[in-house]
Amino acid sequence: MTNIYTPQQQRVLLITSLLVIAGFILFGLSGYISAFLGAGILYVVFRPWFTALAIKRKWNRSLVTSLLIVFALVVIIMPFLTLSLLLIGRIQYYSQHTDDIMKLVKHAEDLIGYQITSPQNVRTIAQQAGSYASKLLPSIAGGALDFIVIIGLMFFAMYFMFVDQESFTKGLQKYLPFKRDTQKELAESLKNNVNANVLGQALVSLVQGVLTGLTLWIFGVPDAGFWGTVAFFLAFIPILGTPLVWGPAGLIQLSQGNTSQGVGILLVGVIVIINIDNLLRIMLARRMGNIHPLITLAGIVLGVPIFGILGLVVGPLLLSYFIVLIHVFEQENKKLEKEAAVAEEKIETEAEHSKRAKK
């Protein structure tokens, strides 16, 4: 029986069907997309280790991957989850008990001699901050089953990325709609972003968070550990970061009459913490990928509302990919223009030879 569709129509319908089915799949997995993004990030982070052990030393792939999963769970996931839960718990506490915040606002108003805002606005902002933090950061209390499924999917995907590494990379090369040179450029961009925004930035944030917490503790600021944790997360934001913690802490100490403590906090923040941040970023940029701070900052603003805490990495990565693809598009246009110019020159030369031959 003859098919009623032409080959061209069959091709269009096939592509349409693929897009529709892919849309349903993405919609169904939208709640767990962070698991696959996390698997991809961990794959890039641990790939050098896997290559050294499983490829070069010929260790069993399943064993190496299992060890990497255990390491990721113990060293990365659990500490990060603990920090997240600590931060969420304290933010929710302050959002429900706004008296402490109102005292700080009152001290600030007395210091500058101007009313900043009304008590009702402070309570509203605090409650919104608590709600936003609960959505942004992973929380077992907010959904234990979802959390377990996401972690399980992430490690499951990571396991097969490593065990079937050759098939995985060949599949990407085969189905990505880019030339080989473009794929290499995108892979390098992914590597640089993950190194800069996961490994490098996590190290910078950890150092800054510890220094901020110690500084506040030395100068007698209450809840120094909590504010050090806040500084760790804020340190992912370039430039602003930890000054949002130690700056107000120093000013509050000054407003309360604790001049030496306030001046000490501000001096340590300006002289030590900021310079440590700049020094570490310069050192790590040479080793782990030089990502412009503007790309990181804009990427975080873009990525965090969409992807949650993973947006700290995914947002800058999307911007970097956008810039890479623009660069590739520009190169392709230059090639086409050059080829067109060569072809036009060839036609003119042939026409000139033709005229001479006729003469």
Automatic annotation (TrEMBL):
InterPro entries: AI-2E-like (IPR002549)
Pfam entry (one): AI-2E_transport
Intracellular or extracellular location(s): Membrane
GO cellular component: membrane
Entry coiled-coil feature ranges: 326-353
Membrane disposition: Multi-pass membrane protein
Keyword tags: Coiled coil, Membrane, Transmembrane, Transmembrane helix
Membrane-spanning ranges: 35-55, 67-88, 140-162, 198-220, 226-251, 263-284, 296-329
Family the entry assigns: Belongs to the autoinducer-2 exporter (AI-2E) (TC 2.A.86) family.
Name by which UniProt lists this protein: AI-2E family transporter
